[in-house]
Amino acid sequence: MSESVVAKEGVRGQRPGREASPAALRSGRRGGERTVVPDAEFASYYGRPIIKRDPWAASDIAGYFFLGGLAGASSVLAAGADAAGRRHLSTVGKLGALGAVSMSAALLIHDLGVPSRFPNMLRVFKPTSPMSMGSWILAVYGPSAGFAALSHVTRLFPRLGATSTSLAALTGPAVATYTAVLLADTAVPAWHEAYRELPFVFAGSSMCAATGMALTVLSPARHGSVRATAFAGGLLELAAARRMRRNLGFLAEPYARGRAGLLTRASEALTLLGALTAPAVRTRRAGFLCGGALLLGSALTRFAVLEAGRASADDPKYTVLPQRHRKEAETREEATPEMIVPTGLS
Amino acid sequence: MDLRRWPVYRQLTGTDRLGRGAAARSAETERLAPRTAAADRVVKSVCPYCAVGCAQNVYVKDERVVQIEGDPDSPVSRGRLCPKGSASLQLTTGPAREHRVLYRRPRSGHWEELDLATAMDMVADRVIATREATWQATLKDEDDEVSVRRTLGIASLGGATLDNEENYLIKKLFTALGVVQVENQARLCHSSTVAGLGTSFGRGGATMFLQDLQHSDCIVVQGSNFAEAHPVGFQWVMEAKARGATIIHVDPRFTRTSALADLHVPLRAGSDIAFLGGIINHVLRNDAYFHDYVVNYTNAATILNEDFRDAEDLDGVFSGLDREHCAYSFDTWQYEGMGGPGTVAASGDRDEEYEERTRKIRESGRGESHGAGGPSIGEGVPPVDPTLQHPRCVFQVLKRHYARYTPEMVQRVCGVPPEMFAKVCDALVRNSGPDRTSAFAYAVGWTQHTVGSQYIRTASILQLLLGNVGRPGGGIQALRGHASIQGSSDIPTLFDLLPGYIPMPHAHAHQNLDAFIAADASSKGYWGNMRAYVVSLLKAWWGDAARPENDFCFGHLPRLTGDHSTYETVLAQLEGVCKGYFLLGENPAVGSANSRMQRLGMAELDWLVVRDFSLIESATWWKDGPEIETGEMRTREVETEVFFFPAAAHTEKSGSFTNTNRWLQWHHRAVEPSGDARSDLWFMYHLGRIIREKLAGSTAGRDRPVLDLTWDYPVEGPLDEPSAEAVLAEVNGFGPGGTHLATSSELRDDGTTSCGCWIYCGVYKDGVNQAARKKPGSEQSWIAPEWAWAWPENRRILYNRASAAPDGTPWSSRKALVWWDAEAGRWTGHDVPDFKSDMPPSYRPDADATGPMGLSGTDPFILQADGKGWLFAPSGLVDGPLPTHYEPQESPFDNPLYGQRRNPVRQIHSHPLNRYHPSGSEPGSEVFPYTVTTYRLTEHFTAGGMSRWSPYLSELQPEAFCEVSPELAAERRLEHGGWATVVTARNAIEVRVLVTERVRPLRLNGQVVHQIGLPYHWGPNGYSTGDAANELASVSLDPNVHIQEVKAFSADIRPGRRPRGAALTSLVREYRERAGITASTGTEV
Amino acid sequence: MGLLSGPETDVAADAGHADPPPRMGFFTDTSVCIGCKACEVACKEWNAIPEDGLDFTGWSYDNTQNLGADSWRHVAFIEQPVTGGADGADGMRWLMSSDVCKHCTHAACLDVCPTGSLFRTEFGTVVVQEDICNGCGYCVPACPYGVIEKREEDGRAWKCTMCYDRIGDGLEPACAKACPTESIQFGPLEELRTRAQTRLAQLHVSGVSDARLYGHDPEDGVGGDGAFFLLLDTPETYGLPPDPVVTTRDLPAMWRHAGIAALTLFGGITAISMFGRHR
């Protein structure tokens, strides 16, 4: 019976329609109860992804990351070479850095929806935005690397050149690693959950790239510390990647499966090959092959990470299960980190 | 550049250090303002889609409409709009609209542009020529010449999407021209509502208004998908629910309405009478009826003629059935001691052959003429038995009639389990009576059957027994589907009616005005004033030419000789009788049953005029219609001339729509139409003007009505738009000295008053456009008397005298609506009393009293001849005084209730293009084993002309689809998301498959019934396209009002797309042969 | 208050708006949604959003599929067989829910936007300034709800603005205004949160035990949503993340790790080359 009363005096008992509770809303299932470990079978909305994958062109962005790393590490290499008085290595580092950073900037602009608005990147200074920070870092690094190279080749303004060289060497590592934050600072499970190790993967990968370039162009006599650096870079990348996948647990799946898996295996094989053979390089030809492997491996690493992230974005289970599990863990106090990994799935 | 405008500078100097807010504001953001704020003016309008009549605010900037949204002032919509209403900006300003007149020459394959004036002139010439060539002055019938003065060579279809004023001019001009085949969507949608409600209560409109649902204790939505077809109106159901009402949805499918109900009752399509009859039986058997209401306000106590035999006695048919002519004589259905309607209908020719007479009366669709006045019952006062014990009193007859509608029978017929059925009965009984009221809301799920009128009657009987009519929160809400479909029935663009539900004169039944009045007027109640209504109408049309000595030009009216409804017109087109056709905002090539027959009919025309927004299927069938693909039609062989006139939108013209609440709501012109787009008011007025100019000086008798016609409306604006207000004023009527009439009781039969539609009299009271009143609902009671104007006399709840007990006091303090104020000596209350305001409850008429004074102070149904609600209809309907369950024309079952399978007097046309399926146990019925039911979706509108061209609506429901249960999908290997082909004897269509639990197979009568749901919006043209469901439907009609049965028919379904070209026709032929279908299949009585 | 995560009492003021109006929001009560999609159309009409493609999905009545650049409201349809359902449910429920941008208290899209195109308005809502956006696309993978998207035709990112232009003029957003059953309610967030709690209790009393609020809690991973919901089943059933966390919550840690990695890179290379010199 309705509470509504139409009396002689007027109407009583109105209620807004939004307070209606039709019986058809009721469900037979009692809500609330859940199993300890979320089952692989979960209700998704017609299996469609919950988050959206990045809209980037892989070649642009992975290329941008790779070249950024190459440039950043090269600048450091170059500074070291100056200090060690190895002019040829320094030349390679500085020119390589300039070339790489210019190309990476070009790729970034190319990937914009409205390239003419690239300058808006410096419209604000946003610590919360890795891309904003990256732009500002590049704004410092780019010119430094550029002038360093210029003065190195022309031998003009040596003092200013030295300053630029060290400035580039100081900001270079940031250029090489901030891109890891750029990826991690998203809702993409395979990227975000990897935020602890990804910068090290990129750092090592950048070292491989820079040394790889040096090995390919320089004669063995002029390699100097490059081979050792390549070895160290390779190990750093591989170790970090290994640790990353272990901590990712069930979110490591995207790195192992499908295209991403293929790319990961290829990049790691090449990196391993390059890193292990680098110390033994004695001929120009060997240097070329070893360096090539390192360069390619480094590039593929970025593509692999990009692909893995996309795979994790496209399948709702990577978004839902960890979250649901975390939520249940919170509701049940005895949550432990290992339990982030739904046993059924890892 | 100014450094201070650099966000980084603002970050450093301002409080937004992180640059995430104030500092990041852009130049555009600083300038940001809503376009509504910049509008030059806001124009009050009304949504052009369904009949909820949501108010719209139209924002105009630089003479362009820039935004349309809901007007919060409206008491019915409260500013809300459904997706269609929300898309009206795209509808009215989108690129899909045509703005040029287009012309197609005979045998031509393309359109050419035509200048508007030339086109108007050409159309006028064709009307004149066709009219002359096909004119009928008299007909020879029963050995005597009778005058008919008409043409069957011209027909018109459409009006429900147009303004009342436009409908008025269409009916007025065409009638003067002698065109009788004037029809509109109301025929296809709600004609049976008029017959059903009219014969039960006296008026053919919803007895209540949408907002009043908020006071219901129980709402049964049946034969309607309320939430989907009338989303904004549904807010009032939610309001009732919020207050604790019980909401029940009875429907073959689980729909968006069911999703918000308390109980969904799935039943077999086409079995509603059995379901409602079951409830009636429950109410009677358990004495659960509202005794005092039933005894005093219904004809329960009235004693019937002793010759009457009920369906009980004759295995499913009533006494008086003439099987040879598939017709009933009504003589035995009468109250005891009363003359039969034979007296009435035959008006003096008492000795006329009875078969002849009944056939004519049946076909002329008299059922509808009770939209504003119950049928006559002849002279005298019938005997009554207030104890309800007399074996022949209506109450006892009713009890016997429904005795076999037991819960078990309901399960056998409807597939509804007894325990679920009991819940419905209990909810209704519990929520009815002095303290509580229940409401029924229905729509075309009830009307579109061969027994459509009887569906409505069943609900009326139930509501009368429960005492739910004329009371707050009680009644029957007929949900109308077009903006002004109520208006196009009130001011009818319908063949059988004149404005105000006055029947069109019949060639045989009526020779002169007096005979006509005698034939139809009842001696008692307000229908007793019929002569005043008719004379005033004739004065409005023929002005000074209408004089007492010439019967007020009654002779100018063309005469009917049977059924001239839209489906007859199609047959007439195929036979070459009808040669010219106007389509005014209607799309029969998609929207009418058996659309292939519609197109082939149009292909036989000499000329066709289409007025619409876009190039709808009915305008382009000659070049890209389905029959071109199948090779049945060749463009270069189609002789038809086609004119396309772009129509003006609701924002481009002023006028009134009559919504489902019976409110006349005025919408004001916001901008002028562009290009050649014009209002139908403009089109009809100027067409009439040109024709009159061309005929000026003619001495031909047939031209008199045209030349005598009052046709001098003031025109305004750059386009010479006739003044809609002037038309409304004529509709309202004038008294002596040109005063605007205030109420229909001022109408006189001496020619001193004129009135274009007596039930609308008062809408222009005091020279004020009452329909344009917009006092915000928030500032009024829920009755909202000062918002718009409701017919009759601004009464919002009809028969509201019944909200008070016979003594004039409210039945209960919870349900007070109007009551007798003894001191003041008048009726008063929340609503305008629907009663003679100063007639005390104690009033009793003398034996010789007539008219309103002929009824007593306790007779709430003031348009009924006896002032009672009719449980039993002694006259008015041609297929029985009591609703009886019959199977649909095409059904998988024999009738479990009676030997009589179908409505014996249903109207069918077996035609090579319109063959019927075998049913039930007939051999061949297994070829079409499934039941199809067609319906609408929220996202689209009727035949799609106003939605399939809109990208915003099309993307929401992009393709034609069917809904089937997982079980049927498995049985027929239908793949979810794939394609299926649905086949009948008429045609085959392809649709996408939506497999859903919402459609469940019903187990009944030891059989499993699978139902196929088919939305009918699509056609080959537009932005979202698909096959039309109406290709499948047959033309099988309700005999009272000629409405088609598209809610339940049989079909087969198979996986995959349909064949193309000639292979399609051969597939259908192969099915016909397999089922052994002949011309006589399905035609037996 | 937390600038990157956790409850934030005055989100607009923290974004530098001097004495801002109350934070405005949406409360979408899916229990009274009739799935009419008026919200989708009203939104498109007001914001002149392009049509989003004619795809028949077969996902019940949902042919919009998801939120994106060209669909700022999306009505989800879920047909649910109900086992041992309450009377009336007749063995099934049909859930309908109008999804929209959540206007998070801590909005990842806004945080990661490098141009300041995405910004926090004085109403506490999150809006894309289309005269600034350069289409870098970073906001897209950043959103934990998959709301914002880049429009291919013009290269910029688009999403619900909660009709910033309208509410600035005292009007309600187009979707909320159109909604026939007030399933979409617009108003001061605090008020809506209180109303939602009342409504939840009401539903529980009437036996709708599955009813739950979503995005209402300032303690959650995004600091509470500006547009929150009343759902009748788990969030993932509706395509919503069960427990989203704003990615920038971990940003300090990310920078820290990146910093160490950078030092390692610098130190490593330098050390090795220095070491090399001494040989």
Automatic annotation (TrEMBL), chain A:
<protein>
    <submittedName>
        <fullName>Polysulfide reductase NrfD</fullName>
    </submittedName>
</protein>
<feature type="transmembrane region" description="Helical">
    <location>
        <begin position="95"/>
        <end position="113"/>
    </location>
</feature>
<feature type="transmembrane region" description="Helical">
    <location>
        <begin position="165"/>
        <end position="188"/>
    </location>
</feature>
<feature type="region of interest" description="Disordered">
    <location>
        <begin position="1"/>
        <end position="32"/>
    </location>
</feature>
<feature type="compositionally biased region" description="Basic and acidic residues">
    <location>
        <begin position="9"/>
        <end position="18"/>
    </location>
</feature>
<feature type="transmembrane region" description="Helical">
    <location>
        <begin position="61"/>
        <end position="83"/>
    </location>
</feature>
<feature type="region of interest" description="Disordered">
    <location>
        <begin position="325"/>
        <end position="346"/>
    </location>
</feature>
<keyword id="KW-1133">Transmembrane helix</keyword>
<keyword id="KW-0472">Membrane</keyword>
<keyword id="KW-1003">Cell membrane</keyword>
<dbReference type="Pfam" id="PF03916">
    <property type="entry name" value="NrfD"/>
</dbReference>
<keyword id="KW-0812">Transmembrane</keyword>
<dbReference type="InterPro" id="IPR005614">
    <property type="entry name" value="NrfD-like"/>
</dbReference>
<feature type="transmembrane region" description="Helical">
    <location>
        <begin position="200"/>
        <end position="218"/>
    </location>
</feature>
<feature type="transmembrane region" description="Helical">
    <location>
        <begin position="133"/>
        <end position="153"/>
    </location>
</feature>
Automatic annotation (TrEMBL), chain B:
<dbReference type="InterPro" id="IPR006656">
    <property type="entry name" value="Mopterin_OxRdtase"/>
</dbReference>
<dbReference type="InterPro" id="IPR006963">
    <property type="entry name" value="Mopterin_OxRdtase_4Fe-4S_dom"/>
</dbReference>
<feature type="region of interest" description="Disordered">
    <location>
        <begin position="342"/>
        <end position="379"/>
    </location>
</feature>
<keyword id="KW-0411">Iron-sulfur</keyword>
<keyword id="KW-0479">Metal-binding</keyword>
<dbReference type="InterPro" id="IPR009010">
    <property type="entry name" value="Asp_de-COase-like_dom_sf"/>
</dbReference>
<comment type="similarity">
    <text>Belongs to the prokaryotic molybdopterin-containing oxidoreductase family.</text>
</comment>
<feature type="compositionally biased region" description="Basic and acidic residues">
    <location>
        <begin position="356"/>
        <end position="369"/>
    </location>
</feature>
<keyword id="KW-0004">4Fe-4S</keyword>
<dbReference type="Pfam" id="PF01568">
    <property type="entry name" value="Molydop_binding"/>
</dbReference>
<feature type="domain" description="4Fe-4S Mo/W bis-MGD-type">
    <location>
        <begin position="40"/>
        <end position="96"/>
    </location>
</feature>
<dbReference type="InterPro" id="IPR006657">
    <property type="entry name" value="MoPterin_dinucl-bd_dom"/>
</dbReference>
<dbReference type="Pfam" id="PF04879">
    <property type="entry name" value="Molybdop_Fe4S4"/>
</dbReference>
<keyword id="KW-0560">Oxidoreductase</keyword>
<dbReference type="InterPro" id="IPR048158">
    <property type="entry name" value="Formate_DH_Act"/>
</dbReference>
TrEMBL record, chain C:
<dbReference type="InterPro" id="IPR017900">
    <property type="entry name" value="4Fe4S_Fe_S_CS"/>
</dbReference>
<keyword id="KW-0408">Iron</keyword>
<protein>
    <submittedName>
        <fullName>4Fe-4S dicluster domain-containing protein</fullName>
    </submittedName>
</protein>
<feature type="domain" description="4Fe-4S ferredoxin-type">
    <location>
        <begin position="24"/>
        <end position="54"/>
    </location>
</feature>
<feature type="domain" description="4Fe-4S ferredoxin-type">
    <location>
        <begin position="124"/>
        <end position="153"/>
    </location>
</feature>
<feature type="transmembrane region" description="Helical">
    <location>
        <begin position="254"/>
        <end position="275"/>
    </location>
</feature>
<feature type="domain" description="4Fe-4S ferredoxin-type">
    <location>
        <begin position="92"/>
        <end position="123"/>
    </location>
</feature>
<dbReference type="InterPro" id="IPR051555">
    <property type="entry name" value="FDH_Electron_Transfer_Unit"/>
</dbReference>
<dbReference type="Pfam" id="PF12800">
    <property type="entry name" value="Fer4_4"/>
</dbReference>
<dbReference type="InterPro" id="IPR017896">
    <property type="entry name" value="4Fe4S_Fe-S-bd"/>
</dbReference>
<keyword id="KW-0472">Membrane</keyword>
<keyword id="KW-0812">Transmembrane</keyword>
<dbReference type="Pfam" id="PF13247">
    <property type="entry name" value="Fer4_11"/>
</dbReference>
<keyword id="KW-0411">Iron-sulfur</keyword>
<keyword id="KW-1133">Transmembrane helix</keyword>
